[in-house]
Each structure stands twice: as structure tokens, then as C-alpha cells.
Amino acid sequence: MASMTDLKKRRESIQSTGQITKAMKLVSTVKLQKARQRAENSKPYFDFMYQTMASILTESEGIMHPYIDGNGADKKAVIAITSNRGLAGGYNANVVRMIQNSEELPKEHTVIYPIGRKGKELLTRRGYAQATDFSDVINAPMYADAYIITEMLLREYDAGNIGEIYLAYTRFVNTVVQEPRLIKLLPLTAEDHIGKGKKYESPMNYEMDEQEAISLLVPKYISSLLYGAFNEAVASENGARMQAMDNATSNAEEMIEDLALEYNRARQGSITQELTEIIAGANAIS
Amino acid sequence: MADENKMHLKVIAPERIFFEGDVDMIEFRTTEGFRGVYPGHVAETCIVAPGEFKIHINGEEKVAALHSGFLEIQPGEVSVLAEVIEWPEEIDIQRAERAKQRAERQIARYGSSMNLMRAELALQRSLLRLRMSNKDDK
Description:
The complex is a heterodimer.
Chain A: H1 4-41, H2 43-59, H3 66-69, E1 76-81, H4 91-101, E2 110-115, H5 117-125, E3 129-130, H6 143-158, E4 164-172, E5 178-186, H7 190-193, E6 205-206, H8 210-285
Parallel strand pairs in A: 1-2, 1-4, 2-3
Antiparallel strand pairs in A: 4-5
Chain B: E1 7-12, E2 17-23, E3 25-30, E4 33-37, E5 44-47, E6 51-57, E7 60-74, E8 77-86, H1 93-109, H2 113-137
Parallel strand pairs in B: 1-8
Antiparallel strand pairs in B: 1-2, 3-4, 3-6, 5-7, 6-7, 7-8
Helix pairs in contact in B: 1-2
């Protein structure tokens, strides 16, 4: 049996760990609420954007444009959104596993645009090629960041360096459920959009021709998708961390209980032993 | 709609709903030129070019700096999806001033290409910001 001082030390160290995890849980709860609020604020913009895009694609069915037909390049770009900090349970590993398991993304044709250091480390270790790192963005995502990243990726796409663009992030379902998701940003899949636009009372006219409309609207559309994904990913990260820290705290409490029992037993044992020694000593003298 | 001479205007920015209400008329700049829209306009979609966005309500005029986005016009309703839009009081003059100088220097340095286009856009943005915040002071 471990000695009393050892048990005491262990109990104290677990207690302080428990305090830290408890504090971290509270911090992520607050951050989660903020992130959810931000995700909700960005929703009207995104919904409107999606519907407009859907109506244009529906109306201009059969139109030829590189953003719809693809450009023939075989490199695939993946924007992988993970977190910069660990201790969030399976949050980062899930995104990485999803990229690894997807059939559309063979390792030799995939290049990762990491947002989030943890995912970047995991993917580098697994041998994926990396491009520009935007990890700082996820600390405080802004629309301007989404815009800059989109602009850069579209330049690569227009130049024919990449042929497909994917987005890997974690969708926030609710506080306890977050699911990793992989969506294809470009080329646009018509089936995802056609028939899902709004119904206009009167036919819509475009100031410019459809070709130009698509060239101008697609960057805005992708930026808004990215911005929405940032906000959801931050909410998911904090949700995952909140859960992980909650588990850690209750595990610590359980261990403390066990150790307290063991400590009391050890204390009782040493008292009994001392008593036996005293009595034996007294018997020897008399 | 209650009033025939008004249309419903909704300006949505990525982070917030920027403006929502019934208005008499709006003015803005698109990629094709300056435009004004009254209630009952034919359905149309246009892309914004950096410029002033004027909202007329009951004889009053509200102005905002609209940098990029697009408009969807319908007879009784106009929706603006604004990527970047600000009220004059939200503009940081010093930052705009610095951005203007930076853009001018870049234009002087690069004679052509992508960089020039970007610098010109940046210059347009900063000029618009400065122009609008000065107007506000008077």
C-alpha cells in the first residue's frame, strides 16, 4: 500500500488539475455562447447568398463557366479548419480522420490549406502537402479573412494550379453534438443548387450577362460559406472542449474519492500499528 | 404594402443586419455606373462598385459607404448584400489616410498588373472613406 504522504500528494495534485479543468470548462462555455451568437448573426447573409446563387444557377442552366464545369486540373485543395489549442477531445482528430478516409481526396493529389495549428501538425505527420497557413484566423475570425483566403484560392484555380476546392470543418449541431463535414466548394455542383432558389414574382434581370454574374458572385458566395464555417467551427471547438473538460472534472472527482478512501485506510492502518507497538512495548516492560 | 410610394429596404452585412426599413428612394454606384431606384422598379440584380449608398426616407437622407456587394431589386423590395458597408461615424479617418498613402505609393511603384489593380481598389476605398467622413464634419 502506498504511504500516507504519497497518497496525500497525489490527491492534492489531482485536486488542482480538477480545478484547472473546471475553470477551462467555464471559459469554453462563455466562448461557446459568443461563438453561437456570431454564427447566428452571420446566418441571414449566408442564407440570402445561397438562395441568390441557387436562383442564378437554376435560371442559367446549361451555361458554360469554369466555376461550374471545372478546369481539368487534378490537384485538390482542402481548407482544413481545426483549432490552435488542444484539450478539445476528438475535435481535431475527427476532422483529420475525415480527410484521410474520404475517397475523393487521395493523398498524392491533395494539398492542405490549414487553418488551425493542431490539424496542420496532424496532417503534416501523415504526409499531406501543405500550402499557405492561415492558423491565426481561427482565433478571431473576420469576414475580411474569409475574403482574402477565397481570393487567393480562386487565383490558384483560375491559373489552373488546382482543379477542385474542398472545405473540411466541424458543423455545430448542438452543444453536445458536433459533426465533421467535407463540402465541395468548386466547381459548383448544379444538383445542390438547382430548384432551391427563391421564387420571384417577376422574372429577374441582370445588369450584366450571366457569365459575368457568376464570375463576380462566386467569390462572394465562397467567402460567405467560409465565414459561416469559421463561426461554426469556433462554436464546435468550444463545445467539444467544454464536454472534454466536463468529463475530466468528473473523472478527477471520482479519483479524489477513491484516493480519500485509500488515504483513510492507510491512516487507520498506521494508527492500529502504532497502538499494537505501544501495547507490545508496555507488555515487555511489565 | 401599406404605402404605395415606399419600398422595403434590407441591407445585410456578414456580421449584422445593417439597415432595415421602408424608404422612398435609394442611390448607389454599380459596376455599370450611378443608379437610383424608386419603388416599383423592375426586378434586377446588380453588382456594387465602391461608392456612396444614399437612403432617402421621408425627405431625410442617410448616407453610408458601400464598398462591395450586390443588390437585388424587386418591385416592392430591395435587398442589399453588402460585404463591406459602414456609416460615416464608423470610419477610422487616420486608418483611411494611411491606407490612401500606402495605395498611392504602390501605384507609383508598380506600373501594371494585378498589384496595380489592387492598389487602385484600395485607393478608391480609402478616398471614399475620407470623403464621407469629411462631409459628416460640416
